[in-house]
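Materials and Methods. Structural model of Malate dehydrogenase (Oxaloacetate-decarboxylating)(NADP+). The 759-residue sequence of Malate dehydrogenase (Oxaloacetate-decarboxylating)(NADP+) from Mucilaginibacter gotjawali was retrieved and submitted for structure prediction as follows.
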Amino acid sequence: MNKPNRNQDALNYHSKGRPGKIQVVPTKPTNSQRDLSMAYSPGVAEPCLRIADNVDEVYKYTAKGNLVGVISNGTAVLGLGNIGPEASKPVMEGKGLLFKIYADIDVFDLEVNAKTVDEFVNIVKALEPTFGGINLEDISAPTCFEIERRLKAEMKIPVMHDDQHGTAIISGAALLNACEIQGKKLDKIKMVVNGAGAAAVSCSKMYLALGVKKENLVMFDINGVITPDRTDLDEIRLAFATTRNDVKTLTDAMKNADVFVGLSAGNVVSAEMLKVMAKNPVVFAMANPDPEISYDLAIQTRKDIIMATGRSDFPNQVNNVLGFPYIFRGALDVRATAINEEMKIAAVKAIAEMAKKPIPEAVNLAYNTTNLKFGRDYIIPKPMDPRLITEVSSAVALAAIESGVARKIITDWEAYNEELRLRIGIDDKLLRNLTYKARQDPKRIVFAEADTYKILRAAQIVKEEGIATPILLGNIKRIRQIMRDYEIDLGDVKIIDTKDQCDRIEEYADYLYRTRQRRGITLTESRKLLRDRNYYGACMVQFGEADALISGLTKDYATTIRPALQIIGTIPGVRRVAGMYMMITKKGPVFFGDTTVNVNPSTQDLVDITVLIEHSVRQFNVNPRVAILSYSNFGSNDGPIPEKTREAVSILHEKYPEMIVDGDMQANFALNADLLADNFPFSTLKGRPANTLIFPNLESGNIAYKLLQEMGGAEAVGPILLGLKKPVHVLQLGSSVREIVNMITIAVVDAQEKEKENI
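The predicted structure was written out as tokens:
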């Protein structure tokens, strides 16, 4: 990896366009003078008076109930130390981003210039009327302990220092399950904790609360084992002092230890230390980026080990995102006055229990598995598990109610869980799930236009992120020059110049000639065509030299797709290919087809396109609800378009009775379930809006997706080419690097699915 280039990428990510990562957006109409008069003067006076009469009404009329303050003084930022409040702001914005995407919680990040306990506490206390909860972040120990203690005692809204309790909650859940699998009882285990910072102290307190005996826990800091005679420690750390005389070093403590918990520094545990641990040891090496002992070394040393780290590239990642969004979600939803120990324990148990339940297909899809199950390599849920928001938030909310800190009581838990699912749902995570899936089984992607900066940049990104292995087609000197000019590091990537490297030309040309000789293509012309990178790339896929082809950035759609049709061909039974866009909207993904291939499809073409797209949508683990669109609603108008759409729906209902499809209908009725139910209650789409839209011709589909992309703020992923035997995907002319990366991800997942189906 080219580190300077990666560093610049990070700077560009935060600075390009609107600086930063979050923004404030209106939630009410603001289009008319009346709207503005309601939002501000004079209409705003009415809710002000209601709140003045009853302060609890602030939750009804303002955003307080869904607003968390992420607050830091910048004294312990990540692994960077005391870099100041301004320098901590990117981290706090990032935390706000995670709150939003995982639990739909709004955040104001506040970086305060206050280093003493009194200064910090006074500032945060004064902000209580603004927020529904306070997430403390990156505050150095031991100050953070006293700050949190005082704020919890003096405020009547939830307060949590995630650096302490987040790791404690997630690792606590992991400990419960690891000990169960290893056949160990918490009150019997011998535990070593390496590290005595805020997270280590909080984790140790959590483990004691779960049943670990204090006399069986030994804690180390940078100066060695914590003992009662140490004079350099505060009371909080001295509470974990051991009286064991046989422990002087970490090596001593590891002898016959059942559990090692590392929250310290990388590579401080050796293989020899692991060898002297008890049978079936549990090791949580959570230092980042380098664990206390590497995952590979640990599992090579002890076959009976359960190993967890803080890293995403190994099993059992202890990741705070499993906890804090959902803990605050549950606390906010019952207007809790605190996040107490009962709520934390409830979160621990909910997370632990989730890992034992059957894994949703969405999680298997995200991690490219079919048999993920509770065991040594799966002791806690994956961050992409959509059940976290319902399981953890509900458990926390219930604990708040039962422990008496809730000011709002939930009685209909089924309705509450549905509300939680609707807040973000699996649809909002679809692209992230696909990226995770691609990483689990990366494929070889051949790029027909590799002598362009955007393609090379996208190739570097997918290579670095483990999504795909690039193969580059183009002028080698030009490609190398672009890579030097833009500091793009692709290592030993394979580069092929189809005009100079002829090692496969004859074999490919012979194949093209044999398959197209009765379509007017001679052997000489085949050789000439194979100099075209789209033909060569399609042959590489056909011959198994690559798994998918990406092209179209600089050439028109027809020129790009023709070689794939001639060389690879369509899936048996598929009469025509189709193009589909996945539109990522605030309400989830909506699939558009056909937007790129079929100009004016016939009735039978519409049937074929619908069947093809419906099947493809299912591969994204989305249950398709299909609407075939026109300017008519169920026969309200006549004309060629309404008639062919109605006929197509009739055929689909007869031949595919299990398919949820209806039409002809206008787009607003397809996307508005209430409007559809009120006017056409007989529709098979009643209850929920359509998520798959079939357009009557290319013109309407193409116009619709581009309007939604430019004016509706949707992200367009595609065009996704459907119906070919092997994956070929065509970019939009002028696609951005991000759009190319998305298409590569789709291509990898497509290749994975076709490999499963043996197509």
